[in-house]
């Protein structure tokens, strides 16, 4: 049965730009994200450029990834960047105490990462160590990476083979300072932030304060109150989706209840952004400070037989639902959310790419990111959605999520997600304030909610042409199957 949802799209009320940076990614020294993921080393038989897999470079370039956060995560507050520069043979091996207790040989360091960002055509976002590091160490990193003239750190950079500075703009001042970044109180972190940020010197730095865990509104309030606005550019927020933190359940083969609970946490992103943004509005009514959701995504049990510290999980149509609804939420909050990072890019948590030796696959989440890239830097067109319910037991969620934008060429794109696991949604979109002649689109759908791609069948789930849109007299009707995503292009 098809249910009925109505949407009103106001094409004549453009509502500012959707920052492309909300389509950002995250690469931590965690499990097989960097080593045996992005980076296989110069001597690998897998085709690579400076040790980075060519197939990954090509796939990510196709997504136009706007920024990439590195080296953590929790690892960032354990990372001493000087270990990762200079001749590879002379770099110290350390223990990755955070993730799996494995040896970290530092063969992938600052030069490797920043040069990889060049290959990917993406902007680096470096997360600084304010947990186990020092003010001097972070101040030195900024100078090493960004200073053009002569200085101890820029001299060292030149000696290590990089003449020109990389001019990195995005800097995280610690990560999860309330937890793995040092178990600080917000009051204490405010003092730490002010000290570290003072000595991160240079032009055009975009400094991001370590932000709240989920609904810790006191954290956001304390930072907004305690850090002068001219000293920061963004405040982070982390929020993951799962049936419950203590019982995450399998990534494949989940029950409908687990699916529903996961979508409930994912959709909660809207409430979290609204409430954190309301606090920010009190102190920053001009919205100078960005809300930076630099960790989001689905978090499930690791695949059987893999290292529990490596957070390797499959990626199904449920993950596609998390991605589609979350990105719609970010688009619709474009006035405050300016940067976001899916956790994580390769082989960790809700990855867009999985690898197995020489093989690589693109996950359903990859395809969502690819379908949604049309929204990057486009102008938001507001939508009002009157959604039907997705009901399980005594609980319900809105079945449909929508966002819309107009790009530089004048094309309008509508992304619509139906999370209902059982029913199709017939969506009626009233197009007000513009006249459209044609509609075309693509759909990501599959027979089962836990359908996914495998190394044997890497193209099992992939976008297809969508033929279910009907445009007539300013009204668009679209039929979206259960747990499916449609992106339409109107001209
Ligand atoms: O993304 C995995 C971990 O989740 C990150 O390292 C940390 O910041 C968060 O708790």
Automatic annotation (TrEMBL):
It catalyses: Hydrolysis of terminal non-reducing alpha-L-arabinofuranoside residues in alpha-L-arabinosides. Keywords: Carbohydrate metabolism, Glycosidase, Hydrolase, Signal. GO terms for biological process: L-arabinose metabolic process; polysaccharide catabolic process. SUPFAM superfamilies: (Trans)glycosidases, Glycosyl hydrolase domain. It comes from Pedobacter cryoconitis. Residues 294-484 form the Alpha-L-arabinofuranosidase C-terminal domain. One of its GO terms (molecular function) is alpha-L-arabinofuranosidase activity. It is an enzyme of class 3 (hydrolase). Homohexamer; trimer of dimers. The keyword Hydrolase applies. InterPro entries: Alpha-L-AF_C, ASD1_cat, GH, Glyco_hydro_b. Belongs to the glycosyl hydrolase 51 family. This is non-reducing end alpha-L-arabinofuranosidase. It comes from the Bacteria.
């Amino acid at each position: 049965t098809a249910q009925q949802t109505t949407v009103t799209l106001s094409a004549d009320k453009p509502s500012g730009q959707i920052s492309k940076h909300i389509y950002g990614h995250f690469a931590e020294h965690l499990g097989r994200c960097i080593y045996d993921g992005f980076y296989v080393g110069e001597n690998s038989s897998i085709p690579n450029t400076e040790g980075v897999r060519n197939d990954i470079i090509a796939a990510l370039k196709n997504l136009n990834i706007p920024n990439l956060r590195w080296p953590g995560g929790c690892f960032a507050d354990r990372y001493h960047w000087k270990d990762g520069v200079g001749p590879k043979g002379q770099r110290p091996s350390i223990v990755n105490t955070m993730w799996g207790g494995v040896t970290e040989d530092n063969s992938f360091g600052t030069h490797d990462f920043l040069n990889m960002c060049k290959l990917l055509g993406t902007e680096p976002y470096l997360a600084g160590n304010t947990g186990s590091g020092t003010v001097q160490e972070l101040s030195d990193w900024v100078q090493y990476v960004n200073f053009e003239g002569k200085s101890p750190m820029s001299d060292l950079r030149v000696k290590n083979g990089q003449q020109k500075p990389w001019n990195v703009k995005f800097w995280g001042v610690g990560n999860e300072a309330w937890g793995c970044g040092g178990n600080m109180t917000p009051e204490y972190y405010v003092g730490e932030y002010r000290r570290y940020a003072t000595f991160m010197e240079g032009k055009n730095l975009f400094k991001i304060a370590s932000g709240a865990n989920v609904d810790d509104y006191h954290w956001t309030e304390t930072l907004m109150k305690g850090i002068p606005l001219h000293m920061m550019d963004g405040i982070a927020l982390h929020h993951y989706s799962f049936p419950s933190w203590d019982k995450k359940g399998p990534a494949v083969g989940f029950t409908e209840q687990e699916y529903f609970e996961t979508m409930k946490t994912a959709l909660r992103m809207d409430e979290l952004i609204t409430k954190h943004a309301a606090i920010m509005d009190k102190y920053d009514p001009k919205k100078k400070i960005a809300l930076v959701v630099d960790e989001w995504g689905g978090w499930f049990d690791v695949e059987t037989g893999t290292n529990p510290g490596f957070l390797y999980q499959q990626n199904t149509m449920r993950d596609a639902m998390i991605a589609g609804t979350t990105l719609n939420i970010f688009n619709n909050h474009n006035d405050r959310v300016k940067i976001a990072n899916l956790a994580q890019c390769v082989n960790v948590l809700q990855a867009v790419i999985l690898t197995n030796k020489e093989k690589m696959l693109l996950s359903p989440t990859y395809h969502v990111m690819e379908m949604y890239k049309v929204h990057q830097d486009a102008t938001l067109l507001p939508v009002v959605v009157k959604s039907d319910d997705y009901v399980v037991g005594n609980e319900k969620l809105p079945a449909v999520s929508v966002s819309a934008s107009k790009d530089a060429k004048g094309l309008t794109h509508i992304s619509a997600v139906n999370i209902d696991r059982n029913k199709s949604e017939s969506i009626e979109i009233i197009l007000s304030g513009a006249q459209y002649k044609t509609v075309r689109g693509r759909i990501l759908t599959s027979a089962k909610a836990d359908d996914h791609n495998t190394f044997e069948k890497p193209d099992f789930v992939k976008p297809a042409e969508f033929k279910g849109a009907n445009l007539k007299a300013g009204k668009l009707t679209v039929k979206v199957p259960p747990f499916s995503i449609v992106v339409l292009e109107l001209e």
